[in-house]
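Why should sequence recovery work at all? Because a backbone constrains its sequence more than one might expect. Tight turns favour small or flexible residues, buried strands favour hydrophobic ones, and helices have their own preferences. The token representation captures these environments compactly. In the example below, the structure is given first.
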């Protein structure tokens, strides 16, 4: 296929390279001066999108996505697929899909989980919103860039699935970290805490697969000085998107709200910026109730 790829950053760069390695012709654009293996870069988003079978975007936020959509939709050919893999607000995803639809394009929102390692290794999970026809066209590309693509329903539903998942993740990571910090104060060693909880009803992905305590459980960013991994800043972004969506849909999400507030304080007022989101554990360590 002929593919346009816009946003060649930490995630987009390796995703584009994997498509090129699989034999697709990839033409890319990024506002930063980047060079990406296997990708021919051109001077504008519109140029990268012109006459392609599929155009993929991997951008920082919904505002930038909307601006890029305005630039590329007029140059895309009818029947082509506009595949956005960025994590953005549900409203922007639906807005862009509608604009694409009006221009006779097929639109998909397909945010990912799996992080930079997943992008490099081609093992991402895609959560996809859009029509069956669009999903089928993009499926071979999901299989190259990832190991799983779940079709979640119409446009916007991929973003909805992503932020609901990460709202659970943010809240369970905080709960796991505060429980470890309480266990410390009660004199319970961390290995015993892990051995019990990871096989009891308090278990979760945060405890079992990504344990925030160094030296305990599987290898995780905690064993690497809390270098991300999944940065607390990105968790904060996703929690904010979840609360923006909850506000718009009038959904009561007190745990998500509290998780957002805690990550905001951690990233913006404490030392959380640039650290893994599991660094909530050293944050809670030693803190009292005051
Ligand atoms: P990044 O900042 O490394 O990459 C974004 C790229 O977009 C940059 O290279 C930037 O120069 C480019 N860009 C910005 N404005 C542009 C424009 N108008 N036209 C063209 N290019 C433009 O970010 P990333 O880590 O690659 O993340 C991309 C998206 O993936 C985000 O929405 C993020 O939330 C999501 N995501 C990231 C991770 C992760 O672990 N990094 C995991 C899951 C999802």
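From this structural description, the recovered sequence reads:
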């Amino acid at each position: 296929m002929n593919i346009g790829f816009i946003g060649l950053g930490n995630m987009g760069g390796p995703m584009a390279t994997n498509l090129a390695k699989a034999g697709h012709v990839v033409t890319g654009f990024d506002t930063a001066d980047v060079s990406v293996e296997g990708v021919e870069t051109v001077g504008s988003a519109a140029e990268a999108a012109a006459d392609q079978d599929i155009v993929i975007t991997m951008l920082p936020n919904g505002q930038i996505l909307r601006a890029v959509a305005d630039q590329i939709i007029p140059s895309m050919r009818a029947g082509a697929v506009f595949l956005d893999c960025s994590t953005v607000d549900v409203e922007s995803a639906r807005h862009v899909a509608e604009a694409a639809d009006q221009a006779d394009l097929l639109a998909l929102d397909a945010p990912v989980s799996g992080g930079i390692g997943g992008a490099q290794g081609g093992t991402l999970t895609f959560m996809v919103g859009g029509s069956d026809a669009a999903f089928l066209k993009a499926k071979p590309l999901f299989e190259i860039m990832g190991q799983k693509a779940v079709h979640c329903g119409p446009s916007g539903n991929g973003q909805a699935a992503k932020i609901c998942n990460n709202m659970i993740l943010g809240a369970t990571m905080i709960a796991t970290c505060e429980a470890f910090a309480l266990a410390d104060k009660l004199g319970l060693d961390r290995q015993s805490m892990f051995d019990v909880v990871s096989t009891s009803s308090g278990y979760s992905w945060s405890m079992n697969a990504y344990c925030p305590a160094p030296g305990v459980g599987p290898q995780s960013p905690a064993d690497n000085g809390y270098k991300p991994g999944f940065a607390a800043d990105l968790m904060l972004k996703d929690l904010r998107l979840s609360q923006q969506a909850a506000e718009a849909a009038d959904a009561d999400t007190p745990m998500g709200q509290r998780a957002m507030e805690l990550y905001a304080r951690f990233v913006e007022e404490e030392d959380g910026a640039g650290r893994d989101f599991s660094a909530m554990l050293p944050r809670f360590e030693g803190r009292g109730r005051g």
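A few observations help interpret the result. The chain has a mean pLDDT of 97.
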